[in-house]
Amino acid sequence: MASAFTRRSALVLAALCLSCLMFGLEISSIPAILPTLERVLHADFKQLQWIMNAYTIAVTTVLMATGTLADRYGRKRVFVIAVAAFGLASLFCGLTTDVLWLIAARFAQGLSGGAMLICQIAVLSHEFQGGRERAVAFGWGGIIFGVGLGFGPFIGGAIVAVSSWEWVFLIHVLFAVLSLALATGVHESKDPNAGRLDLAGILTLSLAVFCLATYLTQGPDLGLASPGALAILGMSIASLIGFVVAETRSARPMFDFTVFRIRAFSGAIVGSAAMNFSFWPFMIYLPIWFQAGLGYDSVTAGLALLAYTLPTLVMPPVAERLALRFRPGLVIPAGLATIGLGFMLMKLGSSTADANWLTMLPGCLIAGIGLGLANTPVTNTTTGSVSRDRAGMASGIDISARMIALAVNIAVMGFILADGVAAYLQKAAPGGLEPGALRRLAESIAAGTTAAVPGLPASVLHDALAEGFGRVMLYGGACVWTLALVSFVTFQARAPRSVHTGL
Question: What does the pLDDT read at residue 8?
């Protein structure tokens, strides 16, 4: 295997793998330190949500633009700029002491991280064109990305325990410098036929996602039916309509909606979104449950989270074999259904009188196994069900579906969590709190603050948190089961005769 690579290509692969590690870690290590950020930076519940959502929305914003810019101005050049920008944004994240500046820096991280992700794929494709060499290179990229995702929660918790939360961000500065040093051997490549940026599509889609996330996050304070909140929601709907109009009229659209006529592509995209209605957004909140609900420190919580993430590393080879034998149209919905089962078992485990990591373990493992079964077949099917010249766009739609669903469901799960806590508190202390104070207390508890409240026993606060998390788990399980059924039906639907499915 090693003989297939020259020294230069091995160094290039190392640079790309480091960027894969950075992107994976930045998604999964930050949730583990949210309780610490809530305490140290005095961040409220909404700000904790935006620390994550600023990143995901920014990634969505830049995905399609990056491909066009890289094709026009050079894939190596854009990759180097993206890695350098990611390092600088990470440096700012680690140095700031203000939560609003941290959110802004996270947005910058997301812009550069999304660009880095797209360029990784483009550079890998250009640098490694031989069959075996290409497979090995992409395999290593996937493994390192998976290691970042799988071990991120533990790494984040361990860094906080050994040093401080700042180093969860600052470590990326070191990785970025090393990646840039190794990337000197990357060959420059361009596409002389690169098209123009689809600015109308980029702006309308980004605005639609941002406004929807804002409505779900800030709506409870404004009043979900208030003029201000409805104006934000209306802007989201109008932007989404504008996006559809812009894409259907564009000569080189960011999203070519005709690919959704391909049943395999559509079924896989439903699966792509489903994983981000359940598994990934819940990973943002699960560390809060382990620390505030079960009383674990950051390291123990990180270790407990490995049961949730490590199966996603083990299962992909099994998923590939199953997809070859039984077809993705069965494996993807089965994987999604398994995630749903895991969520229901986690709900049962969290509602026991003596809830602990052991009662949560079966659900965490099964949810992770389900994600591992669905994820790789989804990626392979979205790109494999279309012609080669549309594979890049198909991959972009897949990643966009993931990021959009993730951004929206971070906000939705946060709303459900705080609402469940508030409903329990209202029953436990009827008439004792005015609505505004009740909402603020519920959000404080949902963020992991379980300090004593006059007139309310500690057990009530804990049970309120358990109620909120139970509702979130029920939501995640119900959504992924519903989308598993939709995915299955979509795969089985008869395709139009004029459309080539590719599968």
Answer: 81
